[in-house]
Amino acid sequence: MISRKDFSTALYALSKAKGYALTVILTLGLTLGSLIAMFNLNYQILQAPLPYADEEQLVVGSTAWLDKDGAMMYQRMLPVSIFRQLYQKPAEQLSDQALFSFSYIGMTLRDLPHSPQVQIAYTTPGYMRMYQMPILHGRAFSAEEDVGSQQAVVVLSEKLWREHYNADPALVGRSVHIGNQQFKVVGIAAADFIEPRLTGPGRSNDIWLPWDFSIGSNFGAGDVSGAHLYLAKLKDASQRQAFEQQLRPQVASQYQDDITALPSQAGRSLVFNAEPLRLVLEGDSRSRTLWMLAGSLLLLLIAAANITNLLLSRAARQQRNMSIQAALGAQRHHLLGQVLAELSWLMSSALLLAFIVAEGAYHLLQLYAGAMLPRLAELGFDWPVLAFALAVSLLLALGFPALISRQINYRALQQNLQSSGKGSGVQISSRTRQVLIAAQVMLAAMLLICSAQVLLQSLQQLRQQVGFASADRYQIPIDNITATPDDSLPSEQRRALYRQQKDELMQVRDILQQHPAVQAVSVSNYPPISFDGYYGSASFIPSPDSPNQQLFSRAVFTDQFYLPLFDIKLVQGRNFTAQEVSSQAPVVIINQVLAQQLKPDGNVLGERLYSTNGSLAFEIIGVSANHQLPDVWSAEETGRSYLTRNIGTTASLQLQLKPGMQLDKTAINQAMAQVSPHYRAANMHSIADNVTRVLLGNYLAAAVTTSLVVLSFLLAAIGIYGVLSYSVQLRRFELGVRMAIGARPATILRQLLGENLKPVCAGLALAGLLLAALWFGLQQTSFIVELSAGGFALPLLLIVLLTTLTSLLSVWGIIRKPAIYALQGQ
Amino acid sequence: MQHPTILMQGITKIFATDEMETHALRGIDLQISSGDFVSICGPSGCGKSTLLSLLGLLDMPSGGSYQIEGKEVSGLSLSEAAFIRNEKIGFIFQSFNLIDELTVFDNIALPLRYRRQSLAKSEIEDRVMACLKTVDMTHRAGHRPNQLSGGQQQRIAIARALVGNPALLLVDEPTGNLDSRNGDAVMDMLCELNNKGTTLCMVTHDPRYADMASRKLHLLDGRILDSDGTPIQQQTPALRQVAAQ
What is the pLDDT of residues A619-658, one digit of tens each? Predict the structure, then answer.
């Protein structure tokens, strides 16, 4: 059907219509590239096999922690002591198992002079077997290093080994100093090990230690940890529910026995779940990536409508050539052969560009969305993706000519020459043109409105003040190797030891405050937003008589410098005094949310909050303003409390530097060394970066939707201009006649605008109907959609403006010349 | 003093491309008075259509003076030219050039709807119906052009040209797309209009129809010739005198 000559003729013709060719290639390349990237992303997350054998048999065990009223408090927790026992007697459905935990306090490699912070996973030999950890040097954990062995051995990641130990193979067998202990290196994991990101896509581990060394491995009965998981491999994937059902009552009943002696836990319960590994890794990314796929598909549809318009427009411009060929005996398939040859060039160029665009998109996703979306590192060339790209391209390559062949009036082509070029010639029906404009506008309006709604929401969130200052503020997690006070010690003694640590850290604070670069320093467990997203918590009861009315809060154990350092406003009351901090006075500052939970009018100064067992009473001395920074844990501001109590194991320094000044870890370590050799600065995390990280979703949404808005607007502009310009080309003669009988340029423009606005309005109405249907559909789901008037008005205004401008542009070439040019088809 | 309907003096038209200039008209002097019936003949490429375009203000001359009823029109803007065309000139094309999407009535009413001052609906209706009556097509007012024969379409085109009461009717090969019977009928109609006082200027290849005009102009290589082949402006001092007034 297509000859070699067709290809060379098509190439020559395209070289003479560079603008047209570039528009088609860019339009299709960009949108097809986005679709390929989004398809790959979804494929990778939802369908691509995990890099572990028998993936369907791999499950992640944890328990949902339910409150007294049955409401879920936390989704994935583990009663450590129960699973320590279960680990010794695994269920019959399992072929392998592992306990897993991770570091959530500052840990450093103390044998290195710059003491780099490391992320640590604590696990058992089964982990390395189940996920087939490839070992570059040495070995994986052996059975001798299993639970209870207390063997101080370590497996390092290839990256850490290369970056900090110069890839020295002799490191295996030597010791490294992590925290307060020496660990013998038994193995280096190979670089191609793809670690299952069990704690979210943003975290990868540098070091694997035996589970015995994890915080909480010795937790007692009734303690529940959010930093532990139970990993298992089923003998058969179909046994997952049986396994779940078998463990559920065991865990629930054991937990009830464990909390009998703990009145504050009475009524709470645990429900064991064994989730497929894929679901855990996928997290909540499915809806996000599917929306992105839908958006890119819509873009491609708009692009396809555009290209159809452009192709029809080109066919109309080529009518004379086609007429001559038809007069010389060319059949419909001859003419289509030429169209196909041109399309082949355009499609192959666009496909090439699409792959480049997709590669760029992978790079951007890895750079900016790595902490939000799983498995991004695995994105890349893949056979299913190539097959998808080829299938879509083929569909388009066949769809376009089919559409054009239906629209080209072959008989009219033959008659065109008979009327000496003075007739109206070839025409593609005005109904088709109207439908194309309406379809174009409908798709563009839907995409623009949806994108604008998301964009405005994201911008609103980004513009909002977060409620505390973050510039020049830093969080310095402390690697503290002071021995943790033993549980067997009397509580008074333990408190005294923790108090000593806090006093030492306050000395460090006072030393640092003398540093010329430092504006202010505070000691606390966490800043308002932590680098790893974690926070401290404390629950209170409003009165010892109502132990069931628990009030949850994110708790900061700190000093009198914390609130001024972060510029957190007090709406009522006052800050702590130095005396209250040094005496750990029973006073508390709470935020407005917690104040209103306590008393709806929020006037709570002088009121008291009690510890959940009723033994401690804290006087409320101040009410702080709420923060406006939703995070992964809560979409709305929660209760917050500030106390002068001991900090525990998660101490960090909060530092405010003078503007333009810098400070490194060495200076902080020197200050710490003056007080105690136990402390090291694990890292310096910018609070502004922490805020940005939390807002990354909004930034990402804003960036994606801005791109969508710009791209869909550009596509709509190209498409609407294409179809209008094409329509005007076809009507050139008719417009010439109108001008000949006295129509002024303004009259012609007004008339065209009136005509063009009809299909535009139809398209907008259709878009409105579809969006209303979508909105009603979303009402039936758990999606919360907030609509803003601006998100509707702006796209509508843009489209009307676009139609006006494109109408003017398309007819400008005709109305600014004497009528004879239009009559002569020039 | 009564101005001639058309007065052209030294009109030239040059089409220029990057490589060459084509002189389509080389100094045309032409006067058409009210009630004249002028036919313009000549071989292909002699400039007939170009002259008709300039006469109808569809294009602007490269040089010379052009007056319609005493008003200089050679340098008008596109918008002003459109107004003059609408009020003073009626066009009849070889291929009728009716607009397919409009009914016969709306096609004829079109020039009235482009008027500088809009006309009342009833007036438009009266004038359209009067013109339809003139061409004997009142029964086809609601039809579309593609439902009519070629002869009928040309009669509608004539009605459209007449509806604005133009000072001049420009006719481009009115019978070119018609068989001889319909061609004769159209020419009879044009003659009758001329007899009633309508000023006509017609381009035609057909000597039979050209002879029906009261004045016959021959064009060759962009110049108007006398019957012996001499450029006519060299022999008409009287015309020059008129132009000088």
Answer: 999 999 999 887 767 778 899 999 998 877 778 899 999 9
- What is residue A818's predicted lDDT score, i.e. its pLDDT? 84
* Residue B53 distance to chain A (closest CA, Å): 7
Cα–Cα dist A28/A445, whole Å: 19
Q: In a 3-state reduction of DSSP, which class is residue B16?
A: strand
Which residues on chain B place their C-beta less than 8 Å from a C-beta of chain A? 53, 56-60, 78-79, 81-83, 85-87, 90-91, 93-95, 97, 99-101, 110-111, 114-115, 160, 164, 177
Provide CB contacts within 8 A for B37, sequence distance 6+. B190, B191, B194, B199, B200, B202, B212, B213, B214, B215
CATH fold label, B35-60+76-229: Rossmann fold (3.40.50)
> Is residue A740 within 8 angstroms of chain B, CB to CB?
yes
pLDDT of residue B241: 39
Q: What is the pLDDT of residues A69-119, one digit of tens each?
A: 888 888 889 999 999 999 999 999 999 999 999 987 778 888 887 788 889
Q: What are the two backbone dihedrals, phi and then psi, of residue A173, each rounded to the nearest 5 degrees?
A: 100, -20
A457 and A508 together in one domain: no
Pair (A658, A704) in one structural domain: no
Q: Are residues A745 and A654 in the same domain?
A: no
- List the single best residue of A430, A734, A741, A748 to mutate versus B (max B Cβ within 10 A): A741
What confidence tens digit (pLDDT) does each residue in A197-213 have?
988 887 889 999 999 99
Residues A302 and A212 in one domain: no
The domain in which residue A506 lies consists of: 482-677
Give phi and psi for A140, each to the nearest 5.
-85, 180
Let me know how many helices (H) and strands (E) chain B has, helices first.
Answer: 8, 10
List C-alpha distances in Å: B26 to A302, B9, B11, B242, B244: 53, 11, 7, 20, 19
The minimal CB distance from B82 to the residues A733, A743, A821 is found for A743
Q: Does A495 share its domain with A621?
A: yes
Q: Residues of chain B whose pLDDT is less than 50?
A: 227, 233-245
